[in-house]
Amino acid sequence: MTQNILILPGDGIGPEIVAEATRLLNALKDRFGLAVELEEAPIGGAGYDAAGKPLPDETLALARAADAILLGAVGGPRYDQLAWELRPERGLLAIRSELALFSNLRPAILYPQLASASALKPEIVGGLDIMILRELTGGAYFGKPRGIQAREDGVREGFNTIIYSEPEIERIVRSGFEIAMKRDRRLCSVDKANVLEVSQLWREVAERVAKEYPEVALSHMYVDNAAMQLVRAPKQFDVIVTENMFGDILSDAAAMLTGSIGMLPSASLDAGGKGMYEPIHGSAPDIAGQGVANPLATLLSVAMMLRYTLNEEAQAARVEAAVGRVLDQGLRTADIWTEGCRKVGTREMGEAVVAELAD
Fold it and tell me: Which residues, 6+ apart, have CB-to-CB distance to 161 below 8 Å?
């Protein structure tokens, strides 16, 4: 059965890196029989340019109908003066919310070929393989009331609400246990229960759900300590599950353990496994159009899509193995380049991975 993939290039370097992902998907179709059809639509700043809003109605309709979605990146300085609701990032938040993509999988895996590119010593990060599971549709980013207001004394104040219902917590924690069951069966729930009532509820729910997964060792850690431990001894973690804002921060910190944020894919899934896949880096407008962006996180996002939504495990493994072989050859984009390696651009890196696809 043919499955439909919606391609959302977005802004900045998004079109460049997504072009390499499209090249990869077409190669998998032509050479290995992957049954997919691709369609493209605008989002973010490109959505505003096309339809006056960051998530055009047509894009949302296509996203609802698609089996999976591949996103490049959104945002750029030319949109900074727009009204808040029209900025590119609002399109990203909106599509996550509209499609109920609550479960954000962010792996932090260090390829052995890139150990020297990590900011930490090889003995600390060698063999690193962490999965950070971030709740994506709740918390401070979506909670109400929110806004900026003037007090009676004329002083302006900003306010946001961190709010989670018990069902919202349960579904993301349960996702964490399910993923841990497929890995090393260790789950660390990160919160701030010593200060926040919402975290106290989070911890209570995690303990209750844990009773259904006796094979998984559940631990708890305050978010400030988790940030420190990610730098001090990251390999102590297997799966981390946490709320939206904490996960946003911790997953970006974990990215630098791997040598470059340009290496890390992500998946955002609904309750049925339909997902939107994207590299975790931003639109990098400072290098957009120069052909130097690292496409590997986007190509690895395709591998996650193949594995988690399209149920094409063999194709996913084929892509990951091709990336490994290209790194073995010493090809590097600027963000992961070290002395003795060959520096290549976006297109050359993408072409090299396609050339290394094998049975």
Answer: 140, 143, 144, 145, 146
pLDDT at 107: 92
Contact 168, 141 (CB under 8 A): no
Alpha helices (runs of H) in the chain, residue ranges in sequence order: 14-32, 45-51, 57-65, 88-98, 122-125, 166-181, 197-210, 223-232, 244-257, 296-308, 313-328, 346-355
Percent of the chain with pLDDT over 70: 100
Token pair belonging to 198: 């919402």
CA distance 45 to 55: 9
Q: Catalytic site residues?
A: 141, 192, 224, 248, 252
| DSSP assignment string, 103-136 | EEEEEEE--GGGGGGSSS-HHHHTT-EEEEEEE-
**Could you identify the residue written with the tokens 């306010």?**
159
Q: What does the pLDDT average to over 54-72?
A: 98
User: What CA–CA distance (Å, rounded) separates 252 from 190?
Assistant: 15
Mean pLDDT value of segment 145-163: 97
Tell me the per-residue pLDDT of 287-306, one tens digit each, with 9 for 90 and over: 999 999 999 999 999 999 99
pLDDT at 130 over 80: yes
| Residue 241, token pair as written in the block | 């599950």
Q: Report pLDDT digits (tens) over 263-289.
A: 889 999 998 889 999 998 889 999 999
| Nearest by Cα to 205 from 245, 178, 165, 248 | 165
Answer whether 168's CB lies under 8 Å from 146's CB: no
The C-alpha atoms of residue 316 and residue 276 are separated, in whole angstroms, by 16
Residue matched to tokens 């992500």 = 266
Copy the structure tokens of residue 225.
């300590």
Name the residue among 39, 42, 55, 40 with its Cα closest to residue 10.
Answer: 42
